Backbone:
């Protein structure tokens, strides 16, 4: 490149005018290009100057991080001490105090599995086995009852493990179900097609809260006497059924984006329906819909917090409960900022992963 | 172009039929696209179908591997009657290769995977073997060095050659070509036609829908002219181009051969 350039000396290279490059150029182009942009810039700077310093003072300078609630009452700043003082209840809820290492390990295993699975080089058959072992291990840890572990009723589960459990299982089960529904909606068989359409439209027409209510209040009425289904499981199923309907519509959009030529090429090779879908159509269609699918997964993740209304102690509920403690009353801003950060980290991780995945799956078209 | 006339090298044995179409009709809704089609194709025979757009030539060959469903009459491919039995359809499709106007390569797979996919999943060939065969056919269409690339990184002519190689990997008994050069830039047409001529010389049974009359003259045993859903004329290339019998054929030829 370099040598080529020096061989054509006919036009001398001159640097662009000073005002077009560097800091000055950037400021001119981006912040002060017109009079109203200049106005907006100044207004924004003013607002930041009004908001940021007081917040920084409250959150970092005047704040307490490791103190008792009594010490907190004496200062104006944030009382972050609320979090470390109650961290074990926030994270694990009513899980027996002495046994809380068990959910802690379960969470570490789950996060480890998620991180391990994000690398494409690990996407082999072995991954399924690793997951199965991991899941059984987590179940044993949480439930106990064997290997000398004290049994812990699922009604005592709560906090972060519950949130992650509902989210990870909800999303991983909803995704294939959604794909099946989307394929069903495109089916040539009228019965299958209308069943899927009815399901999707029905579920999308109902708020998640009402589905959770139905799973916790209405559903048990239909069970024969003496039969009970675990409350967490019922909420889990409600979340799966709900999310799947949305996934189905997104996937359907991707399927419609596929050209007929792809189906025809696959068919003319003699591939059957399942091979055509699995090898040719779905890999392409799902790639197209990564961004909207991830939006749905993120919002489904946040929606797991709605289980509070059927009295499950997820992360949101345990944090709220701490605020009910007279010693820590009135520090809700701190508690909710902490909570928001936890949710943000998870959601940001998901959207980051999806962007990486998109890049990795990119092949020039 | 290759001017040797392979049709004089290997005469066709007339009674060895591979495709038989008897009294076949097809409608798109109310529109009668194909009217009473009768056609016998012998093993190793090469047929070129031409005709104005909308005359039903593409639809005709798409019926042969059931990309379109016919509503009346019979289509028998290699002794199997085409009906609604999905197993029969899949069996026929595996024996009938098809090359499309727009290539229809699988953009998410490498060239090598595009080629080995059919043999691996339909013929249940071990992967290693399928990939070796794929490389063999890629060499044949002179594109082996592109094996690890994706279709989007290739030119149109290269993509179409890959598409031909993909069909060949299934070791088909018949090859259908649906306007294989129509979507190509002019300078790429020859590289695709050369591959098709090579194929012809090896004795592949071919039905080609095309407007490349040079190809028809040098390669075809028979040229069919279709108009308004009917086979209007069917003759050897020499007779067809020098002595067209039907008025509509004459008109068509005068329009495309300036």
Residues:
């Amino acid at each position: 490149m370099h040598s080529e350039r020096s061989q054509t000396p006919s036009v001398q290279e001159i640097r662009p005018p000073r005002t077009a490059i560097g800091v000055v150029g950037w400021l001119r182009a981006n912040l002060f290009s017109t009079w109203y942009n200049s106005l907006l810039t100044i207004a924004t700077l003013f607002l930041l100057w009004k908001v940021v310093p007081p917040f920084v003072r409250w959150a970092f300078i005047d704040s307490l991080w490791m103190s008792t609630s009594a010490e907190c009452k004496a200062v104006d700043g944030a009382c972050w001490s609320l979090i470390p003082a109650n961290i074990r209840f926030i994270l694990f809820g009513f899980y027996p105090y002495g046994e809380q290492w068990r959910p802690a390990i379960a969470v570490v295993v789950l996060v480890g599995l998620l991180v391990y699975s994000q690398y494409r080089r690990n996407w082999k058959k072995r991954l399924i086995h690793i997951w199965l072992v991991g899941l059984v291990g987590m179940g044993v840890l949480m439930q106990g009852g064997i290997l000398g572990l004290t049994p812990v009723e699922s009604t005592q589960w709560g906090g972060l493990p519950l949130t992650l459990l509902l989210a990870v299982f909800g999303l991983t089960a909803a995704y294939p179900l959604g794909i099946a529904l989307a394929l069903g909606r495109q089916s040539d068989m009228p019965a299958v097609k209308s069943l899927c359409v009815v399901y999707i439209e029905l579920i999308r027409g109902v708020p998640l809260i009402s589905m959770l209510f139905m799973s916790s209040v209405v559903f048990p009425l239909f069970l024969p006497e003496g039969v009970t289904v675990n409350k967490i499981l019922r909420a889990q199923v409600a979340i799966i059924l709900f999310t799947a309907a949305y996934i189905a519509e997104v996937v359907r959009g991707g399927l419609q984006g596929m050209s007929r030529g792809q189906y025809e090429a696959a068919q003319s090779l003699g591939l059957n329906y399942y091979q055509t879908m699995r090898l040719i159509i779905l890999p392409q269609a799902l790639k197209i819909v990564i961004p909207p699918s991830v939006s749905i997964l993120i919002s489904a993740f946040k929606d797991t917090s709605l289980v509070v209304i059927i009295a499950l102690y997820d992360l949101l509920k345990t944090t709220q409960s701490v605020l009910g403690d007279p010693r820590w009353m009135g520090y809700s801003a701190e508690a909710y900022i902490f909570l928001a950060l936890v949710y943000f980290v998870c959601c940001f991780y998901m959207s980051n992963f999806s962007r990486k995945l998109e890049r990795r799956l990119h092949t020039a078209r | 172009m290759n001017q040797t006339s392979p049709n004089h090298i290997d005469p066709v044995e007339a009674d060895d039929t591979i495709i038989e179409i008897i009294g076949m009709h097809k409608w798109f809704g109310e529109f009668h696209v194909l009217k009473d089609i009768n056609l016998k194709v012998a093993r190793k025979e090469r047929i070129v179908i031409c005709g104005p757009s909308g005359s039903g030539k593409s639809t005709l060959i798409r019926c042969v591997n059931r990309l379109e469903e016919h509503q009346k009459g019979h289509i028998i491919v290699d002794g199997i009657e085409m009906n609604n039995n999905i197993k029969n359809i899949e069996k026929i499709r595996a024996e009938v290769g098809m090359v499309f106007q727009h290539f229809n390569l699988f953009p998410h797979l490498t060239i090598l995977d595009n080629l080995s996919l059919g043999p691996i999943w339909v013929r249940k060939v071990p992967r290693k073997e399928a990939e070796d065969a794929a490389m063999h056919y890629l060499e044949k269409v002179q594109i082996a060095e592109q094996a690890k690339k994706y279709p989007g990184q290739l030119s149109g002519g290269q993509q179409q050659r890959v598409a031909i190689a993909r069909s060949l990997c299934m070791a088909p008994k018949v090859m259908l070509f649906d306007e294989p050069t129509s979507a190509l830039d002019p300078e790429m047409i020859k590289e695709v036609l050369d591959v098709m001529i090579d194929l012809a010389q090896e004795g592949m049974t071919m039905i080609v829908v095309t407007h490349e009359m040079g190809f028809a003259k040098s390669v075809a045993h028979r040229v069919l002219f279709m108009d308004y859903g009917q086979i209007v004329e069917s003759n050897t290339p020499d007779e067809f181009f020098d002595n067209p019998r039907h008025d509509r054929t004459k008109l068509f030829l005068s329009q495309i051969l300036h």
Observations:
- The two ends of chain A are 27 Å apart (CA to CA).
- DSSP finds 16 helices and no strands in chain A.
